[in-house]
Design goal:
Elements: H1 3-9, H2 12-22, H3 24-34, E1 39-41, H4 48-52, E2 56-58, H5 70-82, H6 87-96, H7 106-130, H8 139-151, E3 157-161, H9 166-174, E4 183-187, H10 197-216, H11 222-246, E5 251-252, H12 256-269, H13 277-297, E6 301-302, E7 308-312, H14 322-328, E8 332-334, H15 337-340, H16 355-371, H17 375-388, E9 393-399, H18 409-418, E10 423-428, H19 435-447
Parallel strand pairs: 1-2, 1-3, 3-4, 7-8, 7-9, 9-10
Antiparallel strand pairs: 5-6
This protein binds iron/sulfur cluster.
């Protein structure tokens, strides 16, 4: 088998994850119209209750039609014939067609996918602004607003979790002003775990579950909740292995820029597990195995001399060229927002527990101990992860319009300094807008490690 074919065969799961992300539109149409499933819009990784109630959660951008590169669409057609497990036959199939882009490596394909997704985010941002979202909101909110303007009418309801950011909560309120708004299901998350906060949140979840049950017609039993939480716990376990075990190793299963792209793709697809939790668990499990196998076979890159840089936060928007620039400057980048904010923690699924209360406990931990209402707690989350990952430096994205997370950088910088971890802040407004400036800043920052 050629080097190229070996590269693809040993990384099939990543291709499946990107294929499932990009083909959300047709998958969701089939679920909605043929199988009569109910779609529920989610943003941030708050999809679990919708899954447990038998709905199909979706991060609205996945209802868009994406340009799919020729290779991936050929892969899609071939897998309809051969199935994903017969990837070798599929390569033969492509060869018979004398398909030119067969010579693409996984690294090329993933790079192109990232560009496609970023282009779509920018389009959604523009649509959000044209549709009247105030210009002083952050990139993430503007592009989410655009997603709802474009596709919000296709869902039965929006699952709205309030968080520490007042702009976010204001934006959620504004969704009802969009034409043909879907029903809103609200979950108020108490900012601090004091007094009867846990009880309040448990009650709020029970109410939301009732509303979801009314939409799907499916009763959400304790067992359904436990079954779903067991699956999402498995996803999180695999995700942690990729961040902590593979990300910490000195031999990466791809070049470090592609490894960072994989982490970025996981950050995006983790919002709704590509609308199919079982498929996502299987893909994550294969991804971990494939990464380990590639490392064992020596496919990838030795990177012990490359400084390890944590780039965060990225979930509200960031310049995705950063990891490529850092790679060219001799470093390797890690993205781990969901780990940092506590979304990868385990949910207790033991039989004698109350699963709704356990989910409330899990969300309360995120709200009060990870994101925190105060910058001291939040900056501790950044610092703790930086130490745990043993990073050599940290790059912090300050988003235009963000007054909640971005303004904690000064405090974070002081804490990092005390631990002798260099850091720098980059301002961000829109993808691609400031690449030259990012290059200059990162160039100066990476000089420190020479
Ligand atoms: S990036 Fe800042 S303003 Fe935007 S949602 Fe997150 S915390 Fe709020």
């Amino acid at each position: 088998m050629s080097v190229f074919a070996d590269d693809v065969v040993t990384f099939t799961s990543m291709l499946k994850i990107v294929y499932n992300f990009l083909t959300g539109n047709s998958y969701l149409k089939r679920k909605k119209f043929r199988e009569k499933k109910k779609l529920i819009a989610v943003a941030l990784p708050f999809s679990d209750l919708a899954f447990a109630c038998g709905a199909i959660p979706v991060l609205p951008i996945r209802m868009e039609i994406f340009e799919i590169n020729k290779y991936l669409s050929a892969l899609g057609s071939a897998t309809n014939i051969f199935g994903w497990n017969n990837i070798t036959k599929f390569l033969g199939f492509l060869k018979n067609l004398e398909f030119q882009s067969i010579n693409k490596t996984v690294e090329n394909i993933i790079g192109e996918v990232i560009e496609t997704i970023n282009k779509k985010h920018n389009q959604m941002y523009d649509l959000g602004v044209e549709s009247g979202i105030p210009t002083d909101f952050c990139y993430g909110i503007k592009s989410l607003y655009g997603m709802y303007v474009a596709k919000g009418k296709n869902v039965e309801a929006n699952l709205n979790f309030t968080i520490r950011c007042s702009a976010w909560n204001k934006y959620l309120e504004s969704l009802k002003t969009i034409k043909n708004p879907a029903k809103d299901i609200w979950i108020d998350v108490p900012p601090r775990n004091i007094g009867n906060s846990l009880e309040i949140l448990t009650n709020n979840f029970s109410k939301a579950i009732n509303e979801l049950e009314n939409i799907t017609g499916i009763t959400c039993t304790d067992n359904r909740l436990r079954e779903h939480f067991t699956l999402r716990n498995q996803i999180c376990q695999h995700y942690k292995t990729i961040i902590h075990e593979i990300g910490a190793s000195d031999f990466f299963p791809s070049n470090p820029a592609t490894f960072a792209e994989i982490l970025a793709l996981l950050t995006i697809s983790f919002h709704d597990y590509n609308s199919n939790v079982k498929r996502y668990v299987e893909n994550m499990s294969s991804l971990v195995n494939e990464m380990k196998e590639r490392i064992r076979k020596g496919i990838g890159m030795e990177c012990s001399k490359m400084p390890r840089i944590l780039i965060t936060p990225i979930f509200g928007g960031w310049e995705p060229k950063s990891h490529e620039i850092i790679y060219e400057l001799g470093g390797r980048s890690l993205y781990a927002d969901w780990e940092l904010l506590g979304f990868l923690e385990n949910i207790n699924v033991s039989n004698n527990s109350n699963p709704i209360e356990e989910y409330a406990r899990f969300i309360m931990n995120i709200s009060s101990n990870k994101m925190g209402c105060d910058n001291d707690t939040l900056t501790d989350s950044y610092l703790n992860l930086a130490k745990k990952l043993n990073v050599d430096g940290l790059i912090f994205f300050q988003l235009f319009g963000c007054h909640s997370i971005s303004n904690c950088y000064k405090l974070l910088r002081d804490k990092l300094r005390r631990e002798e971890i260099p850091s720098t802040a980059l301002t961000f407004n829109k993808i691609g807008e400031n690449v030259e400036q990012v290059k200059t800043r990162l160039g100066a920052f990476m000089e420190m490690f020479k």
